[in-house]
Amino acid sequence: MGGYDNTKITSNSDLARLPSRLKMGLGYDVHRFVSGRPLILGGVVIPYQYGLLGHSDADVLTHAVMDAILSAADLPDIGVLFPDTDDKYKGADSVELLRAVMDKVPRNVSIVNISCVVMALKPKLMGYIQSIRERLAGVMGIDKGQINISATTTEGLGITATADEAGGMSASCNVLVRLG
Ligand code: MG
Known about the structure:
By secondary structure, the protein is α+β, with helices and mostly antiparallel strands. 24% of the residues lie in helices and 28% in strands.
């Protein structure tokens, strides 16, 4: 029995007609604000009165990006790969964990684009978005144009800051990959 997925390759020009498969991945993360820690988002330090609490540096955006990539590549999530019960990852630089994630991604998986939303009432992130895009793209070996980041408040509702509580930040990330 034949199959349309089983493309016959005879000459170089047949390679261009090979079907490429696309897969998407979704990552999501939340961390709580506390005093006395730096705020690190997408590998960039952002001046603020609070930082995010976590076993690693609690970089909520980089965590969402890693989980999205791992999901698209059909690999276990960061909770499995870098457990918060392991002292090795205490205070870990999440950008270095992202580097380790990229090393685990099979060679036939390539990133088409990444789209992220960061949810935070404060601080304002507009002035940092471009540096975050550059930082994360550099680590992943993709162009800055392949990663987009938007930020939104949640109008003081839910997990971001409320009038009487520091709250926290959350990040959601979608990635589209091509399986070559
Ligand atoms: Mg996390």
